[in-house]
Design a protein that fits this description.
One of its GO terms (molecular function) is glycosyltransferase activity. Belongs to the glycosyltransferase 2 family. The structure is a single chain. Strand 20 (307-309) and strand 21 (316-318) form a beta hairpin. The radius of gyration is 26 Å and the shape is globular. With 652 residues, the chain is an alpha+beta fold. The strands form 7 sheets. Strands 15-14-13-16-23-18-24-17 form an 8-stranded mixed sheet, with helices on both faces. Strands 1, 3, 5, 8 and 10 form a 5-stranded antiparallel sheet that branches. Helix content is 33%, strand content 21%. The protein has 3 domains: 7-146, Jelly Rolls (Sandwich), CATH 2.60.120; 154-291 and 364-413, Spore Coat Polysaccharide Biosynthesis Protein SpsA, Chain A (Alpha-Beta Complex), CATH 3.90.550.60; 432-606, no CATH class.
């Protein structure tokens, strides 16, 4: 071991001034017995008053050692700190179950601390971190370093590429979020070290409200100078925006070794960009690097550690040992006690989430969302551009394509953005439901080699839920999804821009798709006694729901009462609008996920029968023709992902 830091991998990172306590918990823990507060003048230097302690066993400052062991060239890392004052640094590691193990100690009086730590003990999980104890006032800065320069990387065919410089092209597609887009650009320019490695910024503007009209735009464009490239184009969806970024970065804009995708409606932790590039440079073999999503509305919550595609249903699913919406303020990384036997009223999943033990495991994934994702140039050159899917499943497909070619996707802790959690959106039932289903079927045809029965059974279960929830517009546009899937891959580019207007026209025919400003615009709810408005949870949830399923199905065979179509029976919040509530009703208003209006759902027995019959027939046809569709979509993939095909679209 050399014990000499060569390149920094991860900075010591402190919260922005003014952050609330729960968000500060992502960065550091102040000891409960501290009698005075810790201080930091900037985001990289911490001052501990005499007699205080701080722990960096936190999301942004602990070092995810198991990921570095699995995916990097390194056998060891160095904790290198610059210090001033008397105190001590205590280094710890965790086991796969979160158990803490002391690694090393160092006094701070010399002015610097350099501790090299082997990555041997991190095969399946574990983090590294340090705690600081101040005897006198103690100042600390620094981070985690590599003991060597990055070396060449091994491609799937055994050839060598690299090593690569620290340079990245950042792409941000935007559609009618001009303020968000400008904020994202300003965030990129705000950190001098991040700014130094950004070689180009690409902004595809697909909307009618332009960032160029927003205050601050011209200043930030001037800051980037010749590095900034804006492209105005029609609304080609996320896949069209991201494909434009990849096309330009590979063809016309510089030669950065890495391209980083970012959504426009996010809050970025700029350090994440530095970490992404260093992770990619030190990779043993090239891979797609995914950033994690923190909840923009509950900023101490991590949406997920990683996701897979369920091999039976071909649907997104949390990876094993992953629990959605982990709250670091309630359960910090150090909260690793054994939760004990699962008590009555909790499912095993709910009870396991009451601790942070599983966050110490290394999580392997199938894909990562494109709210933040970094692609090595060599990967893009090898597997092509995204498919013309508009939105939904384009990120999943690209990761599955990469995995098939030998370039896996890795979702990396401590690399993250804040984004609106998808649970706070109506995208499973609004216009996006068309793309959800159509693109899921397309990607399944390309990559699902097992029986199709699991997919069809899952679709039928979803169909009955939509019917019981009176989501008729969703079913109507899902019929279009299935028809367009069965029409084959030849028309995907042709309908790239036309699908959304067509779907929106269909939705206008259904009351459940029309948003009213408020339920107050309708008569007061007449009431519906006996309908459950709380979630039916716990270990016996499935048994409890059988009774409500029977009652809901029985009610669905009756004719709806006309007066209930003039006056809603109940006003429901989104969490109350579940099938076991709505299936007993003739009508209800349901508040949108964004809390900005309501939709008036009205039960229509004849319409439900018609939609069910058509849906069932198309699902049957998909099952019968799925092998045929596999052949057609797989044969078309090279053309659908080629630069030449996308260039024609961009030049129209």
């Amino acid at each position: 071991m050399s014990n000499q830091p060569v390149e920094r991998l991860q900075r010591l990172l402190l919260p922005r001034h003014g952050e609330p306590h729960d968000v500060r918990m992502l960065y550091l823990h102040e000891a409960e017995h501290n009698t005075v507060r810790l201080r930091w003048e900037d985001r990289g230097t911490l001052t501990l008053p005499a007699g205080t302690e701080a722990s960096f066993e936190t999301y942004f400052n602990a070092f995810p050692a198991s990921y570095w062991r699995r995916w990097s060239q390194l056998d060891s890392v160095i904790l290198y700190l610059q210090t001033r004052g008397a105190g001590s640094i205590e280094v710890y590691r965790s086991k796969v179950n979160g158990t803490r193990v002391h690694v090393a100690s160092a006094a701070t009086q010399s002015g610097e601390v350099a501790i090299e730590i082997s990555l041997t003990h991190f095969e399946d999980g574990g983090w590294l971190w340090f705690d600081a104890v101040a005897e006198t006032e103690l100042r600390i800065s620094g981070g985690w370093y590599a003991p060597c320069q990055p070396q060449a990387q091994t491609m799937p065919d055994g050839s060598q590429v690299g090593p690569f410089r620290a340079g990245v092209t950042v792409g941000i597609p935007t559609f009618n979020r001009p303020r968000d887009a400008v904020n994202a650009l300003q965030a990129l320019a705000s950190d001098p070290e991040v700014d130094q490695i950004i070689e180009a910024v690409i902004l595809p503007d697909q909307g009618t409200q332009h960032p160029a009209d927003e205050p601050g735009y011209h200043e930030v464009v001037e800051h980037f100078g010749e590095r900034f490239h804006e492209f105005r184009q029609g609304n080609l969806g996320g896949s069209g925006g991201y494909s434009r970024i990849m096309f330009e970065s590979l063809t016309n804009v510089g030669d950065s070794p890495y391209t980083l995708y970012m959504d426009d409606d996010i809050v970025i932790e700029p350090e994440s960009i530095l970490r992404s590039v260093q992770i990619a440079r030190y990779a043993r073999s090239p891979f797609i690097l995914g950033g994690q999503m923190l909840n923009l509305q509950e900023r101490a919550q991590l949406r997920t550690m990683g996701e897979i595609v369920d091999p039976r249903t071909f649907m997104w699913s949390p990876a094993p040992y992953v629990h959605y919406d982990h709250d670091f303020a309630e359960h910090p990384l150090s909260d690793c006690q054994d939760p004990g036997p699962c008590p009555r009223g909790y499912s095993k999943e709910q009870w396991a989430a009451k601790t942070s033990r599983d966050l110490h495991r290394r999580i392997d994934v199938d894909f990562n969302g494109w709210w933040m994702c970094l692609f090595p140039r060599v990967v893009c050159d090898a597997i092509g551009l995204p498919l013309p899917l508009f939105i939904k499943w384009d990120d999943t497909e690209y990761s599955l394509r990469g995995k098939q070619a030998g370039f896996p996707t890795v979702t990396w802790p401590g690399v993250a953005i804040w984004h609106m959690a998808w649970a706070d959106k109506d995208d499973a039932i609004d216009w996006q439901a068309y793309f959800h289903l159509r693109n899921r079927l397309i990607v399944a045809a390309m990559y699902h080699d097992g029986p199709v029965q699991g997919i069809i059974a899952n679709l039928r279960k979803s169909t009955f839920k939509h019917l019981m929830c009176m989501e008729y517009s969703t079913l109507a546009i899902q019929l279009e999804s299935m028809r367009d899937f069965l029409a084959g891959p030849e028309h995907l580019f042709d309908i790239l821009e036309s699908s959304l207007p067509r779907i929106n026209a269909i939705r206008k025919e259904y009351s459940d798709a029309q948003v009213l400003p408020s339920a107050a615009q309708l008569p007061a709810a007449s009431g519906a006694p006996g309908v459950p408005l709380q979630d039916i949870g716990g270990r016996l949830a499935k048994v409890k729901k059988l009774r409500w399923l029977y009652k809901g199905l029985k009610h669905s065979f009756t004719e709806a009462k006309a007066e209930h179509h003039d006056c809603p029976q109940v006003n429901l919040t989104p969490d109350q609008a579940r099938w076991f509530s709505l299936s007993r009703l003739d009508s209800a208003t349901v508040t949108t996920a964004g809390n900005n209006g309501v939709v008036f759902r009205k039960r229509d027995r004849e319409l439900a029968k018609k939609l069910l019959k058509e849906t069932w027939q198309l699902q049957k046809e998909i099952a019968e023709r799925f092998d045929e569709m596999r052949e057609r979509y797989r044969a078309a993939r090279p053309e659908l992902s080629s630069r030449e095909s996308w260039e024609k679209v961009f030049n129209e």
